[in-house]
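In response to the reviewer comment on reproducibility (Comment 2.3), we provide here a single inverse folding case reported in full, input and output, so that an independent group could reproduce the run without further information from us. The structure tokens appear first.
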């Protein structure tokens, strides 16, 4: 089936547990929780992201990725998430940044992560791509600084 609205799907025991745990941490205790959710929209249909303060959507320069980001935005709004931002990923040229900005005018961008073969090599070697990639570390630090400062 397809995800028709935010928070309307999946009643499996694992999802019920995850929703209850996150609801306790985020809504009751006001803890800082960072969720690295799977790509796509399923977690929004299940409502597991309900209650988050900010959603960061990672998008690649391409039509399908942009369409998915737009769908994520609408489903997130369905479950009460209003603060969203974009991180452009696998950006090869400035034209990729321009493409994303032109096709996503309603989104705020936290930053961009360039495409780098070293990231793939690190994954194949089962090591963190941040260990030896100072350029990537700099990009990630800039994004983190914007998040902490509440920008965009």
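Designed residues, in position order:
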């Amino acid at each position: 089936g397809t995800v028709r609205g935010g928070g309307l799907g999946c009643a499996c025991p694992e999802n019920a547990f995850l929703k209850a745990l996150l609801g306790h941490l985020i809504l009751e205790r006001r803890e800082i929780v960072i969720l690295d959710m799977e790509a796509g929209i399923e977690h929004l249909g299940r409502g597991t992201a309900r209650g988050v303060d900010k959603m960061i959507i990672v998008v690649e320069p391409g039509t399908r990725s942009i369409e998915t980001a737009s769908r994520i935005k609408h489903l997130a709004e369905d479950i009460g998430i209003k603060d969203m931002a974009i991180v452009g990923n696998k950006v090869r040229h400035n034209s990729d940044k321009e493409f994303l900005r032109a096709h996503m005018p309603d989104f705020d961008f936290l930053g961009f992560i360039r495409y780098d073969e070293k990231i793939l090599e690190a994954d194949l070697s089962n090591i963190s791509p941040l260990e030896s990639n100072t350029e990537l570390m700099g990009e990630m630090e800039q994004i983190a600084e914007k998040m902490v400062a509440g920008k965009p």
